[in-house]
Amino acid sequence: MKDFAVIGLGRFGETVATALRALGHEVMGVDHDATRTQALADALTHVVQADATQEGVLADLGLGRFEVVVVAMGADVEASILVTVMLKELGVKKVVARASSALHGKVLSKVGADEVVFPERDMGFRVAQGLVNPNVLEYFQLSPHYSVVEIKAPKFAHGRTLSQLNLRARFGVNVILIRHGDEINASPGADDVIKEGDLLVVSGPDEGLRRMGGLG
Questions:
Q1: Out of 39, 69, 150, 177, which residue is the most buried by the measure of CB atoms under 10 Å away?
Q2: Is 0.90 surpassed by the pTM of this model?
Q3: Helices (H) and strands (E) in the chain — how many of each?
Q4: Domains in the chain, please, with CATH?
Q5: pLDDT tens, residue by residue, 38-87
């Protein structure tokens, strides 16, 4: 169990905070809006109404002791940058900051954010992938050109083993999980057969996934 803090309890911050709490972690939520803090008072471990941009507030809240702090106030560019700087000065090991644009993300990285997330961009890309290729059920980008996708088994794979498909040689991708109904094969081998209706979790370069039919 880890200690997390989430600063900014708008829709993104609330989602992150409540998800972390549901996973069993201790979560402190911080927001200047009393309505937001009151709404989450029973959902999080601790909720504080405070202006995180004011000098001394973050230190008074003891945020320097938290393992991970999420700066979820992406809409307020100046505030998110200032809070990120102050958190790193307090010695927070990992600061995850939400960015609203590519330039915002670059600045956050420059001032010390350990990880920058782009929820609007990523969600837009997921929606686009689903529209272009309905076989894509889940999509996660690990790097600018490398992803993990969950897809419906393509027709050309039905009834064939992973060895026969030779996906690594053909597309440079790896099948890391096969789900058949309620059965999950988390370490598929060369002799495992892909059946119609199977769901595959596949990792690899985007171009290979695209040629295999896993990306639009």
A1: 69
A2: no
A3: 9, 13
A4: 3-117 (3.40.50.720), 122-212 (3.30.70.1450)
A5: 999 999 999 999 999 998 999 999 999 998 999 999 788 999 999 999 99
